[in-house]
Design goal:
The chain is mostly helical. It has one domain. The longest helix is centred in the middle third of the chain and has 47 residues.
Length: 126
Amino acid sequence: MLLVYGTYNPGGYSYYHWVTQGGTETLASKACVGLVIGLGFIICINATIRSLGQLLLPPGIALVAALIWMLSDWGWIDLSDGLQRTLVAEGAVVAVLGAGLPFSQIRFRLTGQKDSRTISNPPLFG
């Protein structure tokens, strides 16, 4: 959640606003933080894809989309409002990533199977 809302949020306190509204005096800091945020997204998306897999990821995304549609039909959210649309889209990303990150642990506790990747190269030390 911190990664998604820290990257952009409509409140004006985000990485996006820091980069677009600031001067060039902290360009190295902005680049470094941008690389850390990008790495964070790569790690989270990779972990979500690995844990949910091709079988569960599309239905998970469809479930989140259906929930948004249902809340819109009930009048709880107004998708014609740009602020609400932005918050709902960010919430959907948080929901999918938030469901995918711990799913490997849930699957392990239910089935005893671990997600692992074989290492083709031996470790450098030990």
